[in-house]
Amino acid sequence: MIAVENVSVSFGGVKALGEVSFEVPAGQICGVIGPNGAGKTTLFDVVSGLRRPSSGSVRLGDRDVTDVPAVRRARAGVRRTFQRTQVFGRLTVADNVLAAMEWRGGGGGLPADLVAWPARRAREGERRRRVDEVLDLCGLADLRDAYAATLPIGRRRLVELARALADRPEVLLLDEPTSGLDGDQTARLKEIIAALDTTVLLVEHDMGFVMDTCDRLIVLDLGKVIATGTPAEIRDDPSVRAAYLG
Ligand SMILES: Nc1ncnc2c1ncn2[C@@H]1O[C@H](COP(=O)(O)OP(=O)(O)OP(=O)(O)O)[C@@H](O)[C@H]1O
């Protein structure tokens, strides 16, 4: 569950977010839409911990994470993809996913390696199986040994998604996940998201995708929530039409 309460963020004189509040119950797929400059990316930065709000709070489950930095939020099960893909170009697709998985139970140096060797090897095997599983899920199995830098943008985006899914996140934030995807890849993405039992917050400009994929929508305009509701409710909301049509 994600709970954002009265969150405000200002950049100098620009109020990117003004007292934004909403909740995404566990397992729900929630879309954030709004015109350019509405505050969507800023909201993602606040939820993922990259930006601290000037006021307000963010809770994940029953934990207040407002002051918890991004890296610790990631450890607590928050994963994010970015508007501009951020894959490791010099690593293979499989290694990109492997690198994103938390190494639990490491540490302790050589003595620990020797004593705990069988358990560590078993865990390593589990991680590699998981890599294959998510590559399959994302339609990347054939590309597991390709260097990420050589892939077209749509595939790179799917590598980023695979990385985000590898550790079975509790909360997944997707920033414009369809951009650069072709029709087949977009359809696959829809299926992947629908099959997750993760809380998902996504920003997306492709309205068809948003309407088909999300359980609920939040509409931002000039840093304010101007409407929330099911996709059908939002489609018929006059204030939303006004915001988009100017
Ligand atoms: N680092 C920053 N410094 C100054 N102003 C910023 C900064 N980041 C965002 N803003 C401003 O805050 C407002 C919200 O920006 P934000 O990028 O969150 O909107 P957005 O809805 O994600 O837009 P887009 O759809 O174009 O990505 C805009 O007016 C933007 O110019």
Number of strands: 10
The span between the termini is 33 Å
Report the CATH architecture of the largest domain.
3-Layer(aba) Sandwich
Radius of gyration: 19 Å
The biggest sheet, with number of strands, parallel, antiparallel or mixed sense and barrel status, is: 6 strands, mixed
Give your account of this protein's structure.
This protein has 246 residues and is α/β, with parallel strands linked by helices. The protein folds into two domains: 1-77 and 169-246, P-loop containing nucleotide triphosphate hydrolases (Rossmann fold); 89-166, no CATH class. The chain is 39% helix and 24% strand. The strands form two sheets. The protein has a six-stranded mixed β-sheet, sandwiched between helices. Strand 4 and strand 5 form a beta hairpin. The model has no long low-confidence stretch (mean pLDDT 90). Adenosine-5'-triphosphate (ATP) binds at residues 11, 14, 16, 34, 36-42.
